[in-house]
């Protein structure tokens, strides 16, 4: 099968707990019930990303303060979204957003979205991660590459998003062989346009490829015109149930 490239990658995934990493819903004022659902006890969440307005916004948002506080109260890790625009944003701007996330929303870490993955960009990304840990020594750092980066990035983050895209691409995707050197809890997959009838297959692919943090949704990007992550999947209860009980391979 195209998902399998090494025996080690498949073996490493056995018995590993799968959890949800939520890339971030629409603003809590627009989707209050969905944000409230995330705080329901027993939901298998690894973390939830808070993206107020392409980052932390320009001032504290009371609706986001309430949503973040409710999640923290439920023991859910909240990550602030930092957009690196594949290396185009200045270090000062990224650091400023990080401070606002910490000061206003008391985030537990950061998703460095649109993170570059080339070897040449690694020193600057390493600098950003080191600085973020200096201002928040317990910060959980996720690099949002959206594809497999140069292997050296894995030494500088708690987790890497090595796939973000459609089900039509994911079902034929291949895992980079170097990922077999790391445990599955280091990798995250975000997949949209997954039909309910293929949900179990998608979960098996994630396990075979060694990704323990996942987010699958039946929402689509309509050819890049909409954000598929803004709305909770129609089969939310189904995926929560499958992850909570485990899926047979």
Walk me through what this model shows.
By secondary structure, the protein is α/β, with parallel strands linked by helices. The protein has a single domain (19-244), classed as Glycosidases (TIM Barrel). The chain has 8 helices and 8 strands; from the N terminus they run αβαβαβαβαββαβαβα. It has an 8-stranded parallel barrel with strand order 1-2-3-4-5-6-7-8, surrounded by 5 helices. Helix 2 links the parallel strand 1 (19-22) and strand 2 (45-50). Helix 4 (91-105) runs parallel beside helix 5. It is globular. The two termini are 14 Å apart. Residues 1-14 have low confidence and may be disordered. Pfam families: Spherulin4. InterPro entries: Spherulin4 (IPR021986). This is Phage tail protein. It comes from Streptomyces monashensis.
Number of strands: 8
CATH superfamily: Glycosidases
**What is the H/E string?**
HEHEHEHEHEEHEHEH
Q: How many domain regions?
A: 1
Structural class: alpha/beta
Return the CATH topology. Answer: TIM Barrel
Q: Counting H and I runs of at least 4 residues, what is the number of helices? A: 8
Biggest sheet descriptor: 8 strands, parallel, barrel
The value of Rg in angstroms is 17 Å
| Biggest sheet strand line-up | 1-2-3-4-5-6-7-8
Give the helix level as a range of percent.
25-40%
Q: For the terminal residues, how far apart are their CA atoms?
A: 14 Å
CATH level-1 class: Alpha Beta
Strand content: 15-25%
**Tertiary shape:** globular
Pfam families: Spherulin4
Protein name: Phage tail protein
């Amino acid at each position: 099968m195209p998902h399998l490239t090494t025996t080690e990658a498949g073996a490493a995934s056995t018995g590993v707990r799968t959890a949800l990493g939520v890339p971030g819903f629409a603003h809590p004022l627009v989707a209050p019930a969905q944000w409230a659902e995330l705080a329901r006890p027993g939901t298998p969440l690894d973390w939830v990303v808070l993206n107020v307005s392409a980052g932390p916004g320009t001032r504290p948002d009371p609706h986001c303060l309430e949503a973040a506080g409710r999640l923290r109260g439920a023991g859910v890790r909240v990550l602030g979204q930092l957009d690196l625009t594949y290396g185009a944003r200045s270090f000062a701007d990224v650091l400023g957003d990080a401070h606002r996330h910490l000061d206003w929303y008391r985030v537990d870490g950061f998703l460095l979205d649109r993170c570059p993955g080339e070897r040449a960009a690694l020193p600057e990304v390493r600098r950003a991660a080191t600085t973020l840990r200096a201002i928040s020594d317990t910060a959980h750092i996720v690099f949002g590459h959206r594809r497999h980066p140069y292997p050296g990035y894995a030494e500088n983050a708690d987790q890497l998003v090595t796939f973000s895209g459609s089900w039509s691409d994911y079902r034929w995707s291949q895992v980079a062989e170097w990922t077999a050197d790391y445990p599955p809890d280091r990798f995250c997959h975000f997949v949209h346009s997954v039909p309910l009838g293929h949900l179990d297959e998608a979960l098996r692919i994630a396990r075979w490829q060694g990704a323990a943090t996942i987010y699958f949704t039946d929402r689509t990007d309509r050819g890049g015109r909409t954000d598929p992550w803004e709305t909770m999947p129609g089969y939310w209860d189904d995926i929560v149930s499958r992850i909570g009980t485990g899926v047979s391979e």
